[in-house]
Amino acid sequence: MLKKGSQNSQADKGCSMYETIKYRVENGVAWLTLNRPDKLNAFTSQMNKEIQKAIKISAGADEVRAIIITGEGRAFCSGQDLSDVDEGMNLGQKLREDYGPMMEQIANCEKPIIAGVNGVAAGAGFSLALACDFRLVSEKASFLNAFVNIGLIPDSGNLYYLSRIVGHAKALELSLLGEKVTAGEAKNIGLATKVIGVDEWNEQLKAFAENIANKPTKAIGLIKRYLEASYHLSLEEYLKEEAEGQRIAGLTKDYAEGVTAFTEKRKAQFIGK
Amino acid sequence: MNALQFIETSISDGIGYISLNRPKQLNALNRIMVREIVSNMEEFDRDPQVKVILLSGNGKAFSAGADIDEMVNDDPISMELTNQFADWDRISLVKKPVIGAVKSFVFGGGFELALSCDFLIAASDTQFSFPEVTLGVMPGAGGTQRLTKLVGKTKALEWILTAERIKAKTALQYGFINKIVAPELLMEESVDFARKIAKQPPLAVRLIKESINKAVDYPLNEGMQFERKNFYILFASEDQKEGMKAFVEKREPKFTGG
């Protein structure tokens, strides 16, 4: 109990230490809102670091069982703030120092992460949405793999995730043509989990996240872990890992509760452990 | 024996457990702690109940390294007189197999302790590193020697000079750990592995470990002679007679350790 208390205060403390994002925890959901609306929530180094920190804190806080990343104002995230880079900048170094660590933090987080794509997601903002487990997309939102339009390649894990989500051919098409993808098309190609009307946006985003937050969080983390592992293993190796994963799930309190609730014909009350 | 300050020990099912127990300091090793580890390894080595030793760390990490506070004011003469590394030398004299179960940070002295084990089972989140160079020093408890013997000069020099963090997958690839397991199952899998070794005839295990260690240090011909002598010695054991008899009779052997 003491441990939980200290983690609570850690997540709470999180609220006041950010300048480029807003962070709050409500009903088991950590809301991470990119907060540079006058710049369409474009990335600066500081924002990279603050997202990384907020994800790390959320991953370690017991009371957080789902994470939403969304944007303040009319955009989700327009990508790198170009006023924060100059032409002479070593872009490799920029990625290694700012974007790589943020993307790894997101990839290592075993809690479900939902991108609430409220508006345009362009460039690295598109990549950020791709790194999430779900993309709930506002009907007025759009995606843009803008990199090619300024002579660059999609970065921050973009091609890695995009090809897995939409397939090789579509990933190439979006990356080479650099054209806008509407919410409706995003749904058609499997990029959007769901398209939501503007009027219902807040309510539906919240409901989706809170529903996930009430599921067996540890099992969700294991599903994420082993699905990712499957891409790097032979079937034989994967089946060995899968057995480890199921052993871990079988030791959770939520599994015990799930089985008990099933035999008692009632709805399971999961605690995430 | 004095009460243990920095480790916990127990014996169960042929396995002698030693757990580093300074979790708040991420099991940073101080001199008394090292002495406790080594003395208890030696005690287990002489205890007929113990077939294999399992070393692990309580809390988040295996060990984040040596206790720097303890060394800040040292000078060469004080270190020569303290002779702290003499304790470390005794680890390599332990005859029974030592399994290290490692996780999270395995840095500096913690990495050297891990490299002193015969087997390493690592949680998938394990990171190894020798950060000594960033403090203006170098590994002093066998790091430059043991790592180099395990992985060769090329990578040992690179890792020790850059202080780079080595992930579990890389460690497996370079062959200085035996296995990667999910963090949640580190102890369960390590105990399973320890049980497998504990089931083998102890005298054969002992002489195999001794012979393989010689292969690292001896010229081939000397090593071959050493191996041969150990091979002959095993023919004086009861387990050799039982093992071969069981094989001929097509049944499972019952080893007694004699």
3D architecture notes:
The complex is a heterodimer of chains A (273) and B (258). By secondary structure, chain A is of the alpha/beta class. Chain A folds into 2 domains: 2-213, 2-enoyl-CoA Hydratase, Chain A, domain 1; 217-263, Lyase 2-enoyl-coa Hydratase, Chain  A, domain 2, CATH 1.10.12. Chain A is 49% helix and 16% strand. In chain A, α4 crosses α5, α5 (158-166) crosses α6 and α9 (217-230) packs antiparallel against α10 (235-250). The longest helix of chain A is centred in the middle third of the chain and has 18 residues, at 91-108. Residues 1-9 of chain A have low confidence and may be disordered. Chain B has 258 residues and is α/β, with parallel strands linked by helices. Chain B has helices at 31-46, 76-82, 85-91, 109-115, 143-151, 153-162, 168-173, 186-199, 202-217, 220-234, 238-248, and strands at 7-12, 15-20, 52-57, 98-102, 105-107, 119-123, 127-129, 166-167, 179-181. In chain B, α1 packs parallel to α3 and α9 (202-217) runs antiparallel to α10 (220-234). The relative contact order of chain B is 0.11. Classes of the chains: A alpha/beta (273), B alpha/beta (258). The interface between A and B is small, with 6 and 6 residues.
